[in-house]
Structures are given as structure tokens and as C-alpha cells.
Design goal:
- The protein contains eleven helices and eleven strands.
- By secondary structure, the chain is an alpha/beta fold.
- Strand 1 and strand 2 form a beta hairpin.
- The longest helix is centred in the first third of the chain and has 28 residues.
- The radius of gyration is 32 Å and the shape is rod-shaped.
- The termini are far apart.
């Protein structure tokens, strides 16, 4: 049974005339009649009574008509739904990102994406890179902004470098100013406000301190980005944060660059290698990759 045959059958059932039905569906009358006969043969029943030029539905035709109309209506609905998704009028994107990127890089990109494609639903998962990689692996995300290098146990992912960003030290203007230029070794003995376990910035900071020959000292630990910045404003210690976050934190924090090679992190846009992201996700991916050209990351100002 073919959709074309159901269209022909419905046209004849509604006009009760083979010639007018053929004109409605833009096909020759012999072709239409041939397809109706093929449909009847496949179903094993006559659909029309043909007597002295009069056309009427048989009981089998009466039973088929509402079903044929429903199938054709569902087919048209499916066509429209697919076209809306393909043309980015509907759909969704599931994007994962670290908290600092949710406050720094993403807002403007998502605003631009939403302005262009207001019918696309944006679902944001905010977490650390390890958690985001696991979410990608189980199919819970389409894309994720993660910190390189990826965990050694990562599934097969495609990751494209998006930006390399300096890390800076933020402190309260009311507290004594750190040394300038500031070295990692100068943080020895400094009270640090530290992120929770599993946070990429925690791992980077602790590793850098240990490479400089000391174990960092924490006054407060366990917070997310907003909490850490709040604790620093309150004078509880200093923190190492991305330059992008420091730029957007307002003028109530002192920002000090690290001397020499300093510290940096590399952000990549990742998705599963074995599954192509949906159409809407590919469009957001394109915009995020374009942002690395149009949005340079400026270093933090010296304190």
C-alpha cells in the first residue's frame, strides 16, 4: 500500500468521479484507475461499486476512508515537523558547560543564537568537565564545553579547541595587595578560597602550587564560581579564576596577572564521535567556533 494510492482513493471517494478525482490529484484518469485497481488487489476487496457510471463506496471502502484520511494527515504533519526542524524553526540543543563559561562566554553567544532561532529550546547543563564528559557518553548532551586535556577514561569524543585563556588572581581591594608581578610561588602561605572537588580550576591551581614546591592553604573550600567570588569580596582570601570571569566580575575585585608563563586553561567544544549532533546543535556549534575568531580573550589587568 502506497501513500500515492491512498491519495487517489481519497480523491475518488470524495468526488465519486474518477475523472474529477484525476484532475484533483494532477494525474491521468487511466493512471489513477490503474492505481485504484492495484490497491484493491492488494487489499483483496473492492473499494468502489461501479454501476452505469455511478460510483459509490463499498463497505470496505467506507472502512478504509477514515483510516486513509488519518494516514495522509499524519504524513503531512510529519512532513511539516521535519521541515520545521530542518529549517531551525523548532528543536532543542542540550549544551553542557563549566560554570565559569556559563557566566563568561555563553551568554552573548546564546543571545545571538536565540535571536536568530527563537523556536529552538536551549537546555544548559552546568558542571565540571569530568561530569560533562560522562553526560556526553550516555547521550544526555549534544555538545559540551570542556577543559583540556580530557579525562583519560573519556569515551570516543571529537573535541575542537575553542580558546586558550589566562588564569588570574582575584583579591579584595580591602586586603593587602599581592606582589606584582605575581608568581605562583608567591601564593605559598596566602589564604586561598578554593572550589569544590571535581572543579577543573581546583585541579589546575593545586597542581600549579605543588609544581612550585608547596601545598596550598585554604581558608574556605567547596564553593561554585559565584560563591568563590563572594568569599573573595568578603576578604576571606584570594582565588585563581579565568580572566574572562574576572573581567565580568565588576570593579569590586582586584585582578592580578601571573608573571612568566603563568597559568592558563584550554577550552574545547566536544561531542560524541559516533553520533552527529542534531541540526540545531550543529548551528550552535558553528556559532561557538566562530566566536573564537571574533572574541579574543583579554588578559586580566595588573593589580
Amino acid at each position: 500500500m502506497q501513500l500515492q494510492q491512498l491519495r487517489y482513493f481519497t480523491a475518488v471517494a470524495e468526488t465519486l468521479h474518477f475523472t474529477r478525482a484525476a484532475e484533483r490529484v494532477h494525474v491521468s484518469q487511466p493512471s489513477l484507475s490503474q492505481q485504484i485497481r492495484a490497491l484493491e488487489q492488494e487489499l483483496g476487496a473492492d473499494l468502489f461499486r461501479r454501476a452505469r457510471g455511478n460510483i459509490a463506496l463499498t463497505d470496505a471502502g467506507e472502512a478504509l476512508l477514515p483510516l486513509a484520511r488519518r494516514i495522509l494527515a499524519d504524513t503531512e504533519t510529519a512532513r511539516r515537523e521535519v521541515q520545521e526542524v530542518a529549517q531551525l524553526r523548532r528543536g532543542r540543543v542540550r549544551l553542557g558547560a563549566t560554570p565559569s563559561l556559563c557566566t563568561g562566554l555563553l551568554p552573548q553567544v546564546l543571545r545571538t543564537f536565540h535571536d536568530r532561532h527563537p523556536g529552538i529550546e536551549l537546555l544548559i547543563e552546568e558542571s565540571g568537565s569530568h561530569d560533562l564528559v560522562r553526560a556526553l557518553a550516555r547521550g544526555a548532551l549534544d555538545l559540551a564545553l570542556v577543559v583540556l586535556p580530557l579525562p583519560s577514561s573519556s569515551p570516543s569524543l571529537t573535541a575542537v579547541e575553542l580558546l586558550r585563556e589566562d588564569l588570574v588572581v582575584v583579591s579584595s581591594p580591602a586586603a593587602p595587595a599581592p606582589a606584582s608581578p605575581l608568581r605562583i610561588a608567591d601564593l605559598a602561605g596566602e589564604p586561598l578560597v578554593m572550589f569544590r572537588h571535581g572543579y577543573d580550576l581546583r585541579d589546575l591551581t593545586v597542581a600549579a602550587c605543588r609544581s612550585a614546591g608547596f601545598e596550598p592553604s585554604f581558608t574556605v573550600e567547596g564553593g561554585e564560581m559565584d560563591a568563590v567570588l563572594g568569599f573573595v569580596r568578603a576578604g576571606l582570601g584570594v582565588a585563581v579564576v579565568p580572566a574572562m570571569v574576572a573581567e565580568g566580575a565588576g570593579g569590586d575585585l582586584r585582578v592580578t596577572r601571573l608573571s612568566g608563563a603563568g597559568l592558563h586553561r584550554t577550552i574545547a567544544l566536544a561531542h560524541r564521535s559516533d553520533v552527529e549532533p542534531p541540526r540545531a546543535a550543529r548551528e550552535l556549534q558553528r556559532m561557538l567556533l566562530a566566536s573564537r575568531v571574533h572574541r579574543p580573550v583579554r588578559p586580566g589587568r595588573a593589580g
